[in-house]
Amino acid sequence: MITGGRSLISSQPAFSNDAKKLLVCTGNTVSIFSTSTGLQIAELEGHRGLVTSVVVVPSTTPAGKLLCYCWTSSEDGTIKYWDFSVPELMRSIDVKLPIHSMVIPGLSSQPRESSEKPSDLFAYVSVIVLKEQLGGSCALRWQIRKCNLTKSTLVGGVTLAESKNTLSITLSCSGRYMGVCDKRKLRIWEIPTKDSDHSVLQNIRLHHTKTLSTLAFHPTDRIVSAGDVTGRILIWRGVGEHNFSSGNKQRSGGLMKDMEENPGVRDKDEADICTTRHWHSAEVKVLFFSSDGAYLYSGGKEGVLVVWQLDTGKQKFLPRIGSPLLYFTISSDPSLSSISCADNRIHLLKMPSMEVLRSIQGIKLRSIVLDISDGSSEGIVFDSATGVVAICSENYCIQFYSLFDDREVSEVQVCERSHQPADEVTVVVDLVALSPEGSIMITVETRFAEEGIGGLVSLKFWSCSSSNKDFSLSTVVYEPHRFFLHEWVCRDSGISSIAFHPLRHMAVTTSRGADFKVSG
């Protein structure tokens, strides 16, 4: 059996310490890609369930040589420690609960050279548990638990949070704070400088009127930002000034405490002020601060990365990415970052210009609109001679993907249109067929009617003379199948299937109007 094309976007990736490798969660494994070529160079195999987190250890030798170690978590209930330069599995810890996400705050503060015995290293994990409810039924719950990695065990009796909603943990770049979005509130904890099994974590909550989807910590100041499902971005300043142990009387960013007025702050939330930014029309999925804290980046369904100047609110944009944004990942090299998109693609970006250097592309996920629009199963065609599949994908493209090499070969833009959110899609490429020798391709493109007017089916013929599947358009047939309701009413009928003659350059199309046509 030939397989290929795993998801590259199930979890956020991580850069190696030298930014020359990108570690990507791909199903039950972690695939390692070269950032200079975009090609896979190694793989970490050993988990038996979906890998949910990868955390690179920021370590060096006394000689200054960068080491290549990482921790991974998985839905199989294990945490594993790897040397990904070999690659080799070094340790495995079984926590016996499916892990949804994991952060390791102590990695950023661990001494790299010390004669003293290192203190225990702790991970904070979001795990899934089955809890019995009143009446005897069981329900899933998400909990934030503490794991002693040094002793290879969960810390008994320590549950930081529990919720019916998915809890994904976000860690500040300093490792001092971590937080989760729990419906309409943020829950934020301060990590002790010297963590132990018995440490008590101070925490605060920040409230909102809408469901929160993502959060980000400022790199230096007590500023926290969160995005919600309506597209709004909230920015709290002076967060946790008195509740957290490292607080002081001077407010971050020059803001002084006013006990009577805290604009935008709800209830008894511990913050000086809360301001709102609004550009996105749907849920905010990506949110992070620049390394100097001067800018806030955001993204979501529109496929646009927005850069906000934090003090003024002015914006600039990286448009036409072509797919909703899911994750943004920075590297140790300030000129290199990555952005993960919903079409199973990871772009490597040159910063701060945000120029796309190269892309890592998996098999594109099938459009939700296509799945519900009575589309045919012929949206995927396999060429057994070359091991290449042709796939109808979003953004009006046909993707050619090699199962032998497990990478994209080429892409054909069937209809030139910019990216549109799923609820605004008006055109779908819903059928593709290849001739036996692979030199001719036929696609069917459907334009949906708007208020009962303007629906159109287009049959397109493409020719190719090279092995890299670079097709060019040769013929377009509009409304290839039509039927008459009455002698004065003519309706277009959608194409249900396409078949090529095994020996000649001939093809037959069938329609939902119960007829077929032969072309050659």
Automatic annotation (TrEMBL):
Matching entries from InterPro entries are given as: Beta-prop_WDR75_2nd, WD40/YVTN_repeat-like_dom_sf, WD40_repeat_dom_sf, WD40_rpt
Supply the SUPFAM superfamilies for this chain: WD40 repeat-like
Q: Where would I find the WD repeat-containing protein 75 second beta-propeller domain in this sequence? A: 383-518
Lineage top rank: taxon: Eukaryota
- Residues in WD repeats: 277-318
- Which spans does this entry mark as compositional bias, Basic and acidic residues? 257-267
Which SMART domains does the annotation name? WD40
What are the alphabetically sorted keywords of the record?
Nucleus, Repeat, Ribosome biogenesis, rRNA processing, WD repeat
Q: Any stretches that span the bilayer, and where are they?
A: none
Q: Where is this region: Disordered?
A: 247-267
The cellular location(s) given in this protein's UniProt record come to: Nucleus, Nucleolus
Keyword Transmembrane present in the record's keywords: the answer is no
User: Record's Pfam families?
Assistant: Beta-prop_WDR75_1st, Beta-prop_WDR75_2nd
Q: What is its main location?
A: nucleus
Q: What is this protein called?
A: WD repeat-containing protein 75 second beta-propeller domain-containing protein
Provide the organism lineage as a comma list.
Eukaryota, Viridiplantae, Streptophyta, Embryophyta, Tracheophyta
